[in-house]
Write a structure and sequence with these properties.
Blueprint: H1 2-45, H2 51-63, H3 74-90, H4 94-119, H5 123-211, H6 226-266, H7 270-285, H8 289-307, E1 313-315, H9 316-333, E2 338-343, E3 352-354, H10 359-373, E4 377-386, E5 389-396, H11 403-412, H12 422-435, E6 440-446, E7 450-458, H13 462-465
Parallel strand pairs: 2-4
Antiparallel strand pairs: 1-3, 4-5, 5-7, 6-7
Length: 467
């Protein structure tokens, strides 16, 4: 079937291509001829229209030896001769060529006559040569140049008329050929529609029904074309497999969601829980019951927000409470080591983001920034709007990173196999998957000054995120 289609395409396109090539060739030939004649006319137009008057006047002044005499008008004659010589090289029309050759010959004669006058000393004889030679030659030169322009203009007009007439004939040929090819296409298309289009229409209807949920297996649609028959047989074969795959995928998706939730909870560092419980025991043993109760309350809130009733997407307000509970716990553990501040505008708190987005960043700021500095440090979490995005920043005044180390961490965000920066990379890749490449994490750091992690997410409410 494919070979038949190619043959039909070639039968239709080949005549059109041939006609197009012929038209283009004729057009190029006409364009070259037209341009050549037009250049001749343009060059001839450079001929001094006052040639006769100028040369006659200058020769008259020269003959009478007037104070206005500038000598022999050799430059004017040479200019006319140069134009005539160039035109003889590009002129093809016989009449035009005869006229321009006459101009060239007359220019030679004019120079000779001018030299004769220059060699003649008797005034009367010079006057006679001026009347009988110079005036007649300049008149003939100007007349033949006008004759040349006339012939070339006529040739240009005739060429334009011929070109228009031939183009009309070629366009008529194209129209007739197009009508013939169109009739041929319509006839072939009618045959093809019975063999291909009609079965394909039925297949489309069948696919539409499948798309609406009709996954029952029917008898395959009968078609004369082998390829179409294979297609419809394959569709009915795959319908049964599709139903089984959908059921299997649905079950796998449920299992994946359960596993994903479990993995999210498992990401919480178990050492954090052990150390927190140890701190609570120490507070109780030290008699600091109120502090122990506060820490237990914060730990309870921390795990409650971690679970978030099974939701994967929570509001920014919930995420703020989550990291506040975490920071309160750590603040009680590291009393002389850490302070923090959370500054997120209220108008942003109803927007949503993936659960456990900020907690890994805050944990990273504490363990890789503040603790490495070995002095009291400050963690600041801020939020702001920027166009249609929300910018969240986690900043610490800890140890910071060298330029080389910063580049390594930035590179690890994009590498699947990297073992460095797991928490940051997990957050970054999850944001990229959910929202696209325009979102994610950006890192800034200066040694002994601190580190800033900038998180960019789109503005999404619970309704828009589908939660």
């Amino acid at each position: 079937m494919q070979s038949k289609l190619w043959k039909m395409i070639l039968l239709v396109s080949s005549p059109l291509m041939i006609v197009i090539i012929v038209i283009a060739s004729i057009g190029i030939v006409y364009a070259l001829q037209y341009n050549a004649i037009l250049n001749n006319v343009t060059m001839a137009s450079e001929f001094n229209q006052n040639f006769k008057d100028d040369v006659d006047l200058k020769m008259y002044y020269y003959v009478i030896d007037s104070q206005y005499s500038e000598g022999l008008p050799v430059r004017e004659v040479q200019s006319a001769e140069m134009i005539a010589r160039k035109l003889t090289e590009t002129t093809t029309k016989k009449e035009s060529l005869r006229a321009i050759n006459s101009v060239l010959n007359l220019c030679h004669n004019l120079q000779d006559k001018m030299n004769e006058i220059a060699e003649t000393e008797e005034y009367n004889l010079r006057e006679e040569q001026l009347e009988n030679n110079i005036y007649i030659l300049t008149d003939l030169i100007q007349e033949y140049m006008y004759t040349y322009l006339y012939y070339e203009a006529a040739h240009l007009d005739a060429l334009q008329t011929t070109m228009i007439r031939n183009m009309i004939v070629l366009m008529a040929v194209i129209v007739v050929l197009s009508i013939v090819l169109l009739c041929f296409l319509l006839r072939k298309s009618r045959k093809l529609s019975k063999r291909i289009i009609e079965p394909i229409d039925k297949i489309c209807e069948r696919l539409e029904a499948i798309g609406k949920g009709d996954l029952l297996v029917y008898k395959p649609i009968q078609a004369d074309v082998e390829e179409v028959q294979l297609l419809t047989d394959g569709i009915e074969t795959m319908v049964g497999q599709l139903k089984r795959l959908i059921d299997k995928t649905t079950e796998q998706e449920k299992q994946r969601r359960r596993t994903e939730l479990a993995l999210l909870q498992a990401q919480i560092n178990p050492h954090f829980l052990y150390n927190t419980l140890d701190t609570i025991i120490w507070l109780i043993e030290s008699g600091e019951i109120a502090e122990a109760v506060t820490m237990v309350s914060n730990l309870s809130n921390f795990f409650r927000f971690s679970l978030s009733r099974g939701k994967n997407v929570i509001t920014l307000a919930e995420e703020e409470q989550h990291i506040r509970s975490y920071l309160e716990i750590q603040k009680m553990r590291y009393r002389d080591l850490m302070e923090y501040k959370i500054d997120i505008p209220d108008q942003l708190k109803f927007f949503t983001l993936p659960k456990l987005t900020l907690q890994p960043l805050v944990e990273n700021a504490l363990y890789h920034g503040i603790k490495n500095r070995r002095r009291k440090g400050y963690i600041r979490v801020t939020g702001r709007e920027q166009d249609e995005c929300i910018i969240l920043e986690v900043e610490d005044d800890g140890a910071g990173m060298t330029r080389e180390r910063l580049e390594e961490v930035r590179a690890s965000l994009e590498e699947e196999s990297s073992i460095e920066g797991f928490g940051l990379r997990a957050v970054h890749r999850r944001l990229r998957i959910l929202f696209g490449n325009g979102y994610g994490l950006t890192l800034e750091s200066t040694p002994d000054i601190g580190t800033r992690v900038i998180l960019t997410i789109p503005k999404q409410t619970a309704e828009e995120s589908g939660t």
